[in-house]
Amino acid sequence: MSGLLDTPVFAGAGLGLVLGVGLCLVLWRLAARRVRLIDRVSPYLRDRPTTSRLLIEQQAVTPFPTLERMLRPVMGDAARMLERIGSPAASIRRRLTRAGSGLSIEQFRAEQVVWATLGLAAGLVLAVVIGTTRGVALVPLLGVVALSALGGALARDQLLSRQVNAREQRMIAEFPTVAELLALAVGAGESPVAALDRVARTTRGELAAEIRATLADVRSGVPLTQALERMAGRTDLASVSRFTEGVATAVERGTPLADVLRAQAQDAREVGHRALMEAGGRKEVYMMIPVVFLLLPVTVLFAVFPGLSVLRIGL
What we know:
mainly alpha
């Protein structure tokens, strides 16, 4: 009897899976057939390359280059779909820059597609398990599969945001020390560029990497003030922005740079101290949750239960 009941469930799950895959293929084919005006006009307006696109070597980002080249068109279509429903390209580019990542937007979209595929596979397994054990209808199972795929793509996006926050927190922690070292080097008679070079060579960390990138811009011919502005543009930290503005102003006007750097280091330490106190206050509030909801009810129970037992015995 149980085998007869399980057979329609398996058949329904398989039919739902085939129907979902077929609908996805139909929608993908209809979207692929749509030709935009820019696609019609662009071949006549741009310079056509002399080498075929099939012969151009593209850098592989996975350990399986042959499989990557085979799946690259499908990955491109999926990446364009994520562009429509997910974060815009400008936001992704900005966060990749702030995270110090060497990934391009196309590579990040490819990773999002991989995460969405893993989420889709997990959703399919979960839907089959729920369908066979609970006998749930087909439409909710399809919703579980779609939400799992969407959750995989959004999880990669959230991971990038966490990487940005973690990197900026490390830069905030490193800033007072770097500013003090720069102040000591400038106070010893070195020029701003030489002081930046000394700090970049003697320190390690995210802020030191940004200083090395700034020095690379200076060596390529970019003025120091403009290179510092680019450094501030690669981060969204107020302390780094004030640091670059102070150094640029001191270089342009000839004001004492060592005093400016020491003042900024002191301000950064005060900001860090305030942030630490605020974090401690939040942790103190969080610590009240187990005390109020776990320890206090147990304490009240142990205090009241003996009295109730005595009253019950007396009655």
